Give the backbone structure.
Amino acid sequence: MNPKNLPDISEFRHHYDLQIRFSDVDILGHVNNTVYLAFYDTGKAHYFRDVRKSSFDWSDVETVIANVNCAFVSPIVFGEEVEVLTRCEEIHDKSFKLLQVLREKNTGEVKSVCETVMVGYDVKEKQSMPISREWRESFEQYEGRNL
């Protein structure tokens, strides 16, 4: 990721504070690269809960991850205060794209950027399905813009 192409942080409404555990850190003192995806998943979970409010049901799977692209910009080290920012970039017929950022809260330094494509999924039929009207309306209402 070219630092000149970093997303505009002011466009993110959703922020969630993360906790770095000692077990997240490798021998170099950096958060292990596999932990970044867990951080992004935590951010997605809290984002979905806030977007869908009371209508979100954890037992009803309506989407699955189709693609994840994670760019490591700067290492996260133990002791830093890190947050994950999440927003929906776009919605298509059967998919939507999330953009997420990990950043150090005190300095604002971007540590990583992630794009995730999620696909509507019918668990019983084991096939993709259109993104529901409820998801579309919830994203647009939360983000305050047409997607």
Notes: The chain has two helices and six strands. The first strand starts at residue 14 and ends at 18. The chain has one domain: 6-143. The longest helix spans residues 33-52.
